[in-house]
Structures are given as structure tokens and as C-alpha cells.
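Review box. Two proteins, two foldings.
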Amino acid sequence: MYSVFVVDDEPIVLEGIRSKIDWESSGFVFAGEAMDGEIALSMLHELKPDILITDIKMPFMDGLQLAAAVKRIQPWIKIIILSGHDEFDYAKKAISIGIEDYLLKPFTPAELLKSLNKAAGQIDKEREQLSDITKLKEELKSSETLKKKEFLSNLVHGAENMADVMQKSQELGLNLISRFYKVLISRIKSKTNNIQNQEEACSLLNSYSASWEQAVCFFHHSNLLVCIFKGSSRDELDESVFHAAETIAHIATKNDDCTTLTAIGKPVEHLSELNSSYDDAKHIIEAGGKEDKNRIINSEDLEGGLNSADEENTGLLDLKENDPLVDRLKYAGKNDISAIIDESMELIRNNPGQFNVFASYLLVDLIFAVSKLIEKLGGDIKKLKPEILQRKFVDDAVLDEKDFRQKLEQVLSFALEYRDSKMTGKYGDVILKAKRFIEEHYADQNTTLTTVAEVVALSPNHFSTIFSQECKTTFIEYLTNVRLENAKRLMRETDMKGYDIAYECGFSDPHYFSYIFKKNTGLSPREYKLSVEEGKGAV
């Protein structure tokens, strides 16, 4: 199935495309629509469709500007331009920047399907080429690639002679001159340990990352993508890095079997400091656990969110104790709890006849690590969980293997829940401010990811990542839900017409409102209104 997004400022065109194509039986999914390019861009940022259909002349941002922006930040999207006869020369200019096809208005559903199938064929061909594992392996083994990889690897590890860096980079055709730098590392994994799926995902990333102007990338080992990002300002750098992190997750997870853990190191101002940014990201990857879900972890977020109340404290990332278990607890997910317990049990089984001794040692070590973690987060273990500090807690835990596992799970769950509460707290004000703004401005059609990101003073990409991970839903899904809930409220409490409710709740087109309403509730607005009037308890 290929997802399709449509942009046109004429409601009748949107309605025609949406309703006159049998999407599912044709092998396509209607992903969404917008009535101008500016709003569409923020929606495309989150929905990431395979194909974009856009009118060439629209208010605010026209189709040509939209197409150029999309090709720059989401190059995999295939674009079909809609144009009138008097806009043909304009359409030809659009084709020159990488548009896949164009349709002259008026067009029939059959003509549109033909164009969509053409784009789908191009997607299939591209996917086949990009997933050519043999080609990837040959590229990675080529003399030039190996030289670049060796040079970049030495650079991020701090092993390159800085006096020769510029000369070597020029010889290798690498532009490393910039004001600020950040290192990003992405680990790509197959949930089922299917090496072919993993290699295909890495092949896709290898091809796409090579076109990123603001980054120099290489694969370290078979499934670790390392990228050195450049930026003339910190804001520009953040925007590039967070966009890339989301793009990596989108590309790699085209195969449902694959997941990505992306770690972002701190910003540095000199190439000689790249190793510190790399070490930040590497540290997160090493301690990131085995969770089978996509995560983006920014070291700056962690450092800011994991500081204690002591202003002199340099933060959890700078722990002097260098306790590997504490480091692991910083990044572990709840799905890693069983893995940590299994490792402890394995150590005990390797020492038969000494269960009590080794179990006591492991549990006390864990309690000590958790205590340090809580302290660095600004908490007091003596007040939060005093019972685990009692000798009786340990003595009772090592009576048998079942009790021991339960106690380990209890301590680990407490540690991760407390840590997560602090991380949520770091962005609690940001999320609260964003949600409050949405509640107050959901009726404004110009309320988008970009406008809300501006309100909370974050880049759109950074805000999108934070919102999705903290709220467990995308920005677009949340905004749409707020609008729909208010629409249902107006249907219950007023006699307003459906089209008036649509506009009142921020939808630009009543037909699109009806489509989204039924998609989310299973009822058309009219059916919902009737069920309320008949007292059937629709909610």
C-alpha cells in the first residue's frame, strides 16, 4: 500500500480526489489533505506519505515552493503536480526540480490512477535498487569509501592528527568547515534478528544519508550509522539533527521488523572536540537496552532533565562513580527489566551452591545503583523507598529464586518509573504550554506544528520528537482529536449546521471534516447528531 497526501485550495478538487478513487482496492491509502502549502508542509512532516499530489497555484505557499521544500527534507516522496493549461510552462519548471508527474485540469479518476501507479512503480524500482545488499557491500568495501570511513572514524574517536584534518578532508572530498557540530548515532535492529531485513534497512539509510548536505555519514559496524552534522547556528544544527533522526526512523522502519535507537551528542564548536559529542551518543547507544521500539534520545535533554537540585552538580551524564549499572538505568526501557534480571540469574546459575551469597551481592549492588540514580535526579531514596534499604528486604529476597526475581523487578520498576517522571517533568511545562495553546486556538486553521513549536520556543523537528515521545501520539493526531471532541460537543449542545461546526472547529472544508469524523468515530456527523437526538448515548 502507498500513502497519498493531497494539497489543493479548491474544496471541489479535494472532494473529487478523495471520494472518486477506490483507494484500498487500488493499492493506495488516502493519508490526508490540506488547502495550502504552508499547512501541508507541517502535516507532511509528521505523516510522511509516499506520494504527494499538489496544485501548482495556491495561497501562502504555492505548489512549486512546497515541492522544493519536500524534496529537500523528504526526498523519498514522489510528487504529482496538478496544473491548468495556462500554467504549463510553470509545471515544466516544477518537473525540473524533481517532480515525478503532472496532470492537466480537468482530469478523470482513471488519469489520476494512471499517474499514481506510475509513481508507485518508481517507488518499487527505487526500493529494489536501494535494498540491493550486494551493491551496498561493494560500496562499503570500495577503496574510497574505506578511506573516508577510516578518516571519519579516527576523527570522532579523537585519533586523527588535527593539523592534517583539513587537508585530508579536502583530498577525500569532504566539507567539514562549520561553526557548530553534533554527532548522531543510529542503531538499526531487526526485532526477529532477521539479518536480511536489517541489511536492507541499512542499505536504504546508506543511500539517503549520502544526499544530506548538512551531514557526513558512515557506517560503523554493520548496523550503526554515524553522522557528523554541521550548522552555522545552534538552532540550524538542532533543526537538521532532529529532522534527520525522524527521517532515519521513518526510512529504517519501512520494514515493520526494524527499529531504531538514535542518540544525539552534545554540540561542540571545534572538530577537535567531536570525540566528546561522539562519546555522548555512543554512551547512550551502549546503555540503550534492547527495547523493540523507536527512540530518539538527546544527550542535552538528559543532562538538563537529570540534574539534581544541587547547582554544583554537573548532571547524571558526568557521574564520577562510573557505575555501569547506573549508566544502564539512565537509558533502559521497561522492556529491559526482564533482560537485566535474566543476566543476574545467569550469573547466579554459573555459581551453583552459592545462591544466597551472589543474590545478596547483586541485589545490594542494584539498590546502591538505584540510590545513586535517585540522588542525581534530586530525590531521597530514604524518603521515597525506605524499605529497600532495610537488611530484612535483602534477607527476605534471597530465600528463593522466585522471591529474588520479584524483588529485583520491584526495585528496577521503581527506578525507571521515577526516572521517567523526572524526564516528563523536564518537558512538562513545554507540553502543558503546547496543549493549552491548542485548546485556545484549535479553531484557527493556521494552528500547525510550526506555529505551536514557535510558541514553546523549539524547532519544529525537536518539538515533534518531544511531543510524540511524551504524549504517545503525534501532534497532528492530538490536534485532530481536540477538534473532533469539540465538534461532538457542539453537536450535542447546539443546533449548529454541520458545515458551521466544521469551520468553528478549525477544519478548512466541511467535506474533509465529514471524512475525518467518520474515519475516527465510525459515524458521519449527521448520523452522530441523530444518535444524540434519539438518546442513544453517542459520545
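Next protein.
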Amino acid sequence: MTAELVRGQNHPLSLSRVEIRVSAGTDVLALACACDDEGRLTGPDALAHPAAPALPGLTVPGAAAAEHRFAVDLDAVGPAVQQVRVVLVLPPGGPARFGAVPAPRLAVADPEGAELAGYTLTGLDAETALVSLELYRRQGAWKVRAVGQGYADGLAALLADAGLPAADATALAAAVSGGAAREGHGLAPVPAAAATGATQALPGPRDAGPAPAAAQPTPPAGTPAPAGPPEPVAEPGPVPVPGVPYPGTPGPAPADAAGGPPTVDYVHPRRRRTTSEPPEPAPAAAAPPAPGEPPARVAGDATGWSMDERLYNQVWGMFEDLARTVAAYRSACDFADSRLERELDEVLSDHRHRLAGSGDAARATARARREELVAQARAALDRDLAQLAAEAEVVEPALPAAYARWAAPVWQGHRVPEEAPMALRLGDLHLPERPGLRIPMLVRLPLERGLWIDNGRTGSEAAMAMDTDRLRRAAMDTAVAHAARMLAVHPPGRFSVHVIDAAGAGAAALAPLVHAGVLAAPPAVGAAGVAETLARLTRRVDLVQMAVRAGAPEDLPPDLDTAEQLLIVHDFPHGFDDRAVTQLRYLADEGPAVGVHLLMVADREEASAYGPLLDPLWRSLMRLSPVPDDHLADPWVGHAWTFSPDLPPPGGLALEEALERAARARRHARP
């Protein structure tokens, strides 16, 4: 039976030899890109097109047509190729946009002709080039994903977005168009080497070169140009478990070798120009501002296929704008200070200022110039901060439950959703220039890294000032809040929570989860409970990995819980022997790829008895704090951001009501 995919959905392929079928209402060119695991071309010769139709393992059609069929041998593609992307392009002289023709449909079939998966590209408008399907490796097996990424600026924009320099992308797009025109007139295609100067051999791993510039919104006035932010990965949507989460959504990176703070990277989809219409209507445009007034803010005015994605992108944009506008202010202040220091040195070195008090006047003039520069920078900063604060006031009330604070009204009428969210709020971030301006810290789901909530008194001043018992309780309350939010925003049966509380010290904090009946099993206590829980989750990781590698996830044992799994470990390393520590490290390393995630509540100092064996475990987790702490840095200018956890308000019932709804939904969903 054919699996009909929607945008972002994937489907396993149990065969290495498949046939790609394209049906369109007009003539189109069918191309293929050989990409690395980040979706980037390794060079112009990694594109199969009419002028150079062959790549190892596949040969694309040589002319534009309304119907295409071509075979792909996935065993024959090079080891450096992690993705094979099928691209559709409108040829010269054809329709001006895909929105003017019937929706194209693509299918992946077996060698006998039976369709395995199909995808219809709906909602198109001004696009002239599309990334339609993607065959990609995961854990040694192949899958197909429905992408549906459109480009109104044509093939050149698509190739530039895939990593080619702008000049090479333009030249290659021209060669493809020229080859298509010659094919249409019955002439021989131009060899790829003649068109682009490239050879036909599939290259090795991509050289690390600069990424093409993505279309960026205008930053606040006075914001410096970015020094080189990391190239994030845009993905169309989450992939269900069992299987593998979509790539490219790491959390904050570990501290670098120099000991600097980890960067916050939750990951921002590139603000490139993509014109595929989102399935949900965009928010209404605000009225034009009065002369001299800043534009009115609208929640969800960023790009994205859904309102949740637009809000996610908008939050990231606010985070980026705040980082850069504060960087501009700090840079201006540094310049003013250095200029003052230089001018004072000049006054001291000039003998004319040593008499009649003229030196005092020169020094006063220099200080006045410094104050003037700082005042100008502060005025620009205040203006930009006021605009961001106005945007935050509009965006915060519009956030869905997965992104919203626990105190937000959205939780009062929250219902367990039918689809998993794309991101989750862990807390807030702010800078000392405007402590009241809080930016939500969102992480993409499924988590690609576990979480570590530090309950030790070796972090921030707030932690040092707290009583040890209160700090440990705050850390466990933070873990419970994260677990409750994950349960509340996932569909019934799609998320399970396990707890290891070997000494039973977290019973009070765990009471809401236990009383609601949302845990997969009672909290594990003692060494026997630790061993049994770790063995069960380790078995799940092993079985899902084997099923994925064999291309047969449907053959998993019927008693295996295929939901996403979260393991909360409290009071580590109490109750852990060497075998348990090894299993925990295995879950931290291998679990996220197959839907098993770790949430540690521990004091690293207490676990130091295990020595360097645990260092890889700590480095692989995203460190959070139960109290405000400035241990995170942004990926643009490296500000030290203060992270504050988001906890339910004292005396409120938001968490308990969310857990009760989740428990009720789970009971009703059971057969």
C-alpha cells in the first residue's frame, strides 16, 4: 500500500533500488542533488541535470517533460552522499510559476512498479524551482522525506542555498537552462566540464567554506554586522518515532576548549526567501505607521509553514536582534572609553597643557566628548530595546502552550494536541542592559541532547546564596516542570516519562507526576530499580537501532513502547555501579537518535568520584540551572546571557491541571 506523505513526513525504504516517478501538468526538468548530511552540495558536479545527467547510482532524464521515471541505486551512491534530493525546475519558455499549473506529484516505487510512497506538492505559488523529495541515510538505512521547498528566484537561489557560491550557482543554473534548451531543439547537451569547468566524478567530503548569505531582516539601527553566526539547519517538520529525529537541532553547545560558556543554539531556521505558502494564513498586516513612528508589531510575522514555526522564527529573530543591538551599544562604549584614554594620554604628553590650567580644560573636553558618545549609543539602544519590548508584548500572549510561560492564560484552556510541537520552552534569557526584556529559550524537538539541571552550589551567586536543600528541591521542581510540559504538549501515547530516584529524596517534588498517573512506571528506587530501568531503556535503544538499520521498524516487538522516552535521573550517582554508569553514558550518546532522552538532576562535584569517565557524559548534556545563572552565550557575539527557569507560579494549578488533562487523554486513547 502506498504511503501518502505530507510535507515534512518521512517513510522508511527497505529497498536499495527504487524508481522515482514524476507527474506534472506541464513540462518540468527533473534534477538530482547529491548532498552531505547538512543538505549541502559538494560542488557543481554534485548536481545531475540535462547537460550532465549521470551521478553514481542515478541518471536523470535529459529533457523537460510532463512525466519522468528514473531509477536510483542507493547502494551505488558514494559514501560521502548522505542525501539525494529530487529537484523540479520549470524550463525556459514554459509557465512562469508552479502556482499556475496543476500540483506535481512524485512517487517512490520498487523495481516491479509498486509505489512505496507518494507526495503531492500543494500550496505552490511563485516558485520556479522545488526541492520535492529527499532520500536520506539514517543509522545505516535509507528513508524518503517529503520536502516541498520552493524558490521563487529559481534554480540559482536553490543551488546557493545548498552551499554553492553565488557565481557558481548562477553559472550552473545557466548551464542547466542552456542544456534544457538544446535538448528541446534536438541538439547534443553541453558537457558539464565545458559549462562549469567541473569534472564528472563525485567529490569527497565538502570543503568547509563560507555559507551563502541568507536573506536577513533588517537589524535594529546601529547593530553591527554579524561576525559569522553558525549555519543552522532548516527542517520541514518532526519525524515520528520509532525512527530517527530530523537532523540539525542541537541545543546549547558545550563549552569550548578555552573554557568559554556554551552557546545557545536552538536552532534558527535560515531566514532565506522561501515562497511556498504556509498551510495556515499569515497574520493580517498592521496599518502603516505614522511618520516617524516605528512599525507596529504583529505576532507571527516571520516566515514559516505554520503559525507555530513563524512564532518560533520570530522569537529567534528577537533573540538575535537583542544580542546585536546590545553588542553595538557595548562596542560604542568601548570606543568612547578608548578614545578618552587616548586623548588623556595626548594631554599628558603635551607640555603646553602643563601651565595655566589648560590641561584641566582639555581633560574636561575629552570627558565631555566621551559622555556625548555614550549618550548617543544609549539613545540608540533605548530606541531598539523599546521596539523589542513592544514586540515581546505582542508575541508573548500569542505563544502556544509549548512556548508559553506556565503563568500564561493559554494553559487555562489547554487541550492535549493531536500533533507534537516543533519546540519547547525551557526558560527565559536576558541581558543586564534590560533585565525586564525576557526572550523565551526554545529548543527544537525531538531533543538531540539530554538536559542536565545543576543542583550544586558551585554555579551562580544565586546558587551560592541558597540553602543546599532548597537548591536541590528547586532543581527537582524544574525537572518536573519540564517533564510535565512535555507530557502536556505531546499527543496521547507519544511521550513517556521514567524516573530514577534511587534514594527516594525527590518524592515530594515528584508527587504531581505520581498522583496524576502519567509516569510509565513508579519511580525506581534502590540499586535494583536503577538496574531494571536502565536495562529496559537500553533494550529499547538496541531494538530500535537494529530495526532502523534493517529498514523494518514495523517489525519491533509488540510490547515495545514506541513513544518518545524521557528518563529523569535524580541524586546521581547514588545507587549506580560501574555497569549502570556505562549504560547511562550509552543512553546519553545513542538514545536521542532513537527517541530516548536523558534529564539529569545532579551535582557534578558529587559525581567527581568517578573521575574523567563521566566527562563525556557531562559535555554531551545541555546544562540548565534552577536559579538565574549567566552560563550561556549567544552564537553571534558571545554575550553571557542570564538564564532563568520557567516554573509554575506558587499556589497555581497550571501544572497539576495540565498533568490531569494529559492523564485523561492517555486513558481515553488506550484501546
